[in-house]
Design a protein that fits this description.
heterodimer; A: alpha+beta; 17 helices; 24 strands; B: alpha+beta; Ubiquitin-like (UB roll); Fumarate Reductase Iron-sulfur Protein, Chain B, domain 2; 2 domains; 7 strands
Chain lengths: ~675, ~260
């Protein structure tokens, strides 16, 4: 599941001199892009950081309540960021259309988040504050996020809890009837609110119910089983381009529909499925975001991917998705592999203590099994690359390490372990058929969240005027690495408390000139969608869509996964270009356009994933530094730790699409910190 | 399964699957063979294998719903050998092939209920559930108007019970399992979740009356205390939520709603 559980951020601040990089080494990707003009976020007010959001809210223009019903808002996606925005804007009186590809808004993948949601309530009086949550989030993101956005996120976090409690979200409570909090991993304060291991589900049901209430009130119309396939960007009379609508496909009848509006919001989630196997839901895709990118929305930091160390390993070539187990398991489980390759196929219980390598405890004696996610993930990969992985051989390699609870069961007793982790052990047993009380669990890292996404300014507006982007689909708040229990916080912050204020400043200029379906921009967008669909159905090739997706996933995981190198990324770009060419000439999609056709749906998504994959590799190639979830083998300390290069890379890489087959343009947004000092992390 | 030399071999299965081209055309059962099914596969991965096979042969793949494939989104749901979600108390996506034997014949059908029309093959329309929620399955609170979260204390027992009932994933197995096609368990879970909390009291009478009216309007049947719903429920929502539903409805009637 999408875990928001503990990020073991118990890192040590280091004031060591900032490393510098040879200027000749910072243009690895120069053959793959065109340098563009630098960009700035023009919307964030200056001044003291704790005043910026109040200032912006005050300065953002208002829309008279009687005008709101004349303004049409399209929102794509019904996860936390989309459903909360649709409900809130509906309550405010705007005319909202909400779209999702699932059969009900309640099924969006936010529902799978397990761990919890952070908020700076300081109910434990343990020294938490808005500033501390801000500080932890910027530092956790390895100083690659925008400080104004993060501060605002921390600021509105407390309102989220109030809102959700009032909606009836059944958070865990103490016996006195007050809300319970827990501390996640090494975070030193207890600021995480939770609903057993199903926090995402409960928060999403809250937002979904608020949304359905607005449907009944007539302010929101929902379009389920509808997939957005194009954004409509049209010039107004003054020559200003604006997002004015979307083209969608009714996934049941196949009808291509045009929906026009004054503003378009994308809350369409992350693109982890570019790796084929991830903890994302089967339908999660990049199409809405990618279509917007191709129409002018910049894609920011696409290479920032979070890989989670405690997932259930792949069991065979049939694997369709990966399942995450809460990282809290690392609090009591010990991670090891056999010292001898010959022992890898043995029953682990028969391998004596002296033949086991508790590699995290060995390499990182002070943090041991609790090192941060990226370090734990890479270390597991190295053991398996070295031929000491365990579990079934998949394509000739055993990709798994043991997570052993024998010591914990000996120390605490089976009942105590069951009390703490029973549901996770049950889930593991159901999926693998093995009993983790008897034999060690096997785990392996998996892709689980992307920090990159469409570039947005402080108002959450993309580089296309009138196109706003919220939640995981934007890039703004998590920098190069997201902390546990912060994804849910960001989704709801954007939808309930940020977007409704910033979007009104844009809508104050509306309603915009009415667009006819005969407008050239609408005709062009609709024709492009129909042409693509027609192409897929008439290629008449030999390979299934899934086989291409699987191959793309292999390339991405091998060369743009946990460890990236210049040579590997260049190779990946070549492989992806070849794959793309083959895909358009040789894919086999059966059925018709005018019916429920799941192969056709997948074909469009995979086509976009292939293009995204190439851009991710270019972005990773350009960023010759290691930061957060991005590890370039060329940029590490002598001890093998990630090495940032603030002198060369303290910027957001915002990529502009030019045309098929042409180099993208790189725009840099410099990151400056006024309220926090940049530091290097260390775990030894 | 192990061959004599210790290597794993796959299962061979016969699948009887409901095929229906669209909502208005008649459907019928078709028989397919799949080979090399691993016991580590999930049930839906086994269907993925079948679909790859059909695609290669130029036949239209079988349409079925799934999304999270980890038992929480509620999108998947198949009648497997006459049981909603199959032989194990979990969702279809969390059912694994080790629950089946080599050579077995498996019958796979969509949810069948008047209120859940088939759209194609194994895909049904569960929009009726959303429309029931629209009639009161919420607490009315506009964004920004919420009081401080600690201004109301909720006894832990109440919060825990509310949580247990809120774990319903809206998959529709209760309806599919019920001989009457009733959604009483689904409704009862929501009524109990919200009714258990102080925040949910203001709209309690109106909620139950309107939700039940919508339920009946959608064509779901009444509850006759058979209990198939709770035994099919992957989240083990207990039958007593239906008692709570009836009790709340009675109370609302007394209040003249």
């Amino acid at each position: 599941m999408t875990d928001s559980h503990s990020e073991f951020s118990s890192d040590v601040d280091s004031h060591a001199d900032a490393p510098t990089i040879d200027p000749d080494l910072i243009d690895d990707a120069i053959d793959y892009y065109t340098p563009g003009e630098p960009i700035v976020d023009a919307k964030a007010p200056t001044g003291p950081i704790d005043q910026r959001w109040s200032t912006r809210k005050f300065e953002a223009r208002l829309v008279n309540p009687s005008n709101r019903r004349k303004l049409d808002v399209i929102i794509v996606g019904t996860g936390l960021a989309g459903a909360s925005a649709a409900a809130t804007l509906g309550e405010a009186g705007y005319n909202v259309k909400s779209f999702c590809y699932q059969d009900s808004p309640r099924r969006a993948h936010s529902i799978a988040a397990q761990g919890g949601i952070n908020a700076a309530k300081n109910y434990k009086e343990d020294g938490d504050s808005v500033h501390r949550l801000f500080y932890d989030t910027v530092k956790g993101g390895d100083y690659r996020s925008r400080e104004s956005n993060v501060y605002r996120l921390a600021e509105v976090s407390t309102n989220i809890i109030d809102q959700c409690v009032a909606q009836g979200v059944p958070f865990a409570r103490e016996y006195g009837g007050l809300l319970d909090n827990r501390s996640f991993g090494g975070v030193q304060v207890s600021r995480t609110f939770y609903a057993r291991g199903q926090t995402g589900q409960q928060l999403l049901i809250g937002a979904y119910q608020a949304l359905e209430r607005q449907v009944a009130a007539g302010t929101v119309t929902t379009y389920t089983r509808h997939e957005m396939l194009e954004v409509i960007v049209a010039e107004d009379e003054a020559g200003q381009s604006r997002a004015r609508g979307i083209i969608v496909r009714d996934m049941v009848t196949g009808e291509i529909e045009t929906h026009l509006a004054d503003v378009v919001v994308l809350a369409s989630g992350g693109y982890g499925n570019v790796f084929y196997l991830s903890t994302n839901a089967m339908g999660c895709n990049v199409t809405a975001a990618w279509r917007a990118h191709r129409k002018g929305a910049y894609m920011a930091n696409p290479c920032y991917t979070q890989i989670h160390p405690t997932c259930i390993p792949v069991s065979g070539p049939h694997q369709s998705k990966l399942t995450l187990m809460s990282e809290s398991l690392r609090n009591d489980g010990r991670i090891w592999v056999p010292k001898n390759k010959a022992d890898c196929a043995k029953d682990p219980r028969e391998i004596p203590e002296e033949d086991r390598d508790y590699y995290l405890e060995r390499i990182y004696p002070s943090f041991g099994n609790l090192v941060p996610r990226d370090i734990a993930s890479r270390a597991a990969k190295y053991q398996c690359d070295d031929g000491r992985g365990v579990g079934p051989e998949v394509e000739g390699v055993r990709r798994g390490v043991y997570l052993d609870f024998a010591d914990a069961i000996g120390r605490l007793g089976r009942d105590a372990v069951e009390e703490k982790y029973g549901n996770l052990f049950d889930m593991y047993a159901r999926i693998t058929g093995e009993d983790p009380y008897e034999t060690p669990m096997r785990i392996y890292p998996a892709v689980h969240y992307v920090m990159g996404g469409l570039w947005v300014d402080y108002d959450l507006q993309s580089s296309i005027p009138g196109l706003f982007v919220t939640g995981e689909a934007n890039f703004s708040d998590h920098g190069a690495n997201r902390l546990g229990a912060s994804a849910l916080m960001q989704g709801l912050a954007d939808g309930y408390f940020v977007l409704p204020h910033t979007i009104r400043d844009y809508l104050a200029d509306g309603p915009f000139e009415k667009l006819e379906e005969s407008h050239p921009a609408v005709v062009e967008a609709k024709a492009a969608v129909e042409e693509r669909i027609n192409h897929f159905l008439t290629v008449g090739g030999t390979r299934s869509v899934d086989s291409y997706h699987r191959e793309l996933g292999h390339i991405m995981w091998e060369y743009c996964g946990m460890e990236r190198t210049e040579d590997g990324l260049k190779k990946a770009i070549d492989l992806i270009r070849t794959l793309k060419d083959d895909f358009y000439r040789n894919v086999k999609v059966l059925g018709t356009a005018d019916s429920l056709n799941q192969s056709l749906e997948k074909a469009g998504r995979v086509a976009d994933f292939i293009e995204l994959g190439e851009l991710m590799c270019i972005d990773a190639l350009n960023r010759r530094e290691s930061c957060g979830g991005h590890f370039r083998a060329e940029s590490q300390t002598e001890d093998g730790e990630a090495l940032r290069h603030d002198d060369a890379f303290a910027y957001v890489a915002a990529w502009e699409f030019v045309a098929d087959g042409e180099k993208p343009i790189l725009h840099k947004e410099d990151l400056t910190y006024t309220a926090i000092e940049m530091k290097q992390r260390s775990y030894k | 399964m192990s061959a004599p030399d210790g290597t794993k071999t796959g299962m061979k299965l016969t699948l009887n699957i409901w095929r229906q081209p669209d909502a208005t055309s008649p459907g019928k059962m078709h028989t397919y063979q799949v080979e090399d099914v691993s016991e580590d596969m999930s049930f839906l991965e086994m269907l993925d294998v079948l679909n790859e096979q059909l695609n290669a042969a130029g036949e239209d793949p079988v349409a079925f719903d799934s999304d999270c494939r980890e038992g929480i989104c509620g999108m998947c749901g198949l009648m497997i050998n006459g049981q909603a979600h199959g032989p194990v108390t979990t969702t279809t996506c969390q059912l694994h092939m080790r629950s089946f034997k080599d050579g077995e014949t498996i019958t796979i059908e969509p949810w069948r209920a008047d209120a859940f029309p088939v759209l194609k093959d194994l895909v049904v329309d569960r929009g009726a559930f959303d429309r029931i929620i629209q009639q009161g399955g919420y607490i009315s609170v506009n964004t920004g108007s919420a009081p401080e979260a600690h201004s109301v204390q909720v006894p832990k027992e109440d919060a825990d019970r509310a949580f247990d009932m809120a774990t319903c994933i809206g998959c529709g197995a209760c309806v599919a399992a019920c001989p009457n096609g009733s959604a009483s368990l689904f409704m009862g879970a929501k009524i109990t979740h919200l009714g258990q909390l102080p925040q949910g009291q203001a709209e309690r009478d109106k909620r139950v009356v309107n939700m039940v009216a919508q339920h009946d309007h959608e064509g779901f049947g009444g509850c006759t205390n058979i209990g198939e719903c709770t035994s099919a429920c992957p989240k083990e929502i207990p039958l007593d939520v239906i008692s709570q539903l009836n009790k709340d409805l009675r109370t609302a009637m007394k209040h003249g709603r």
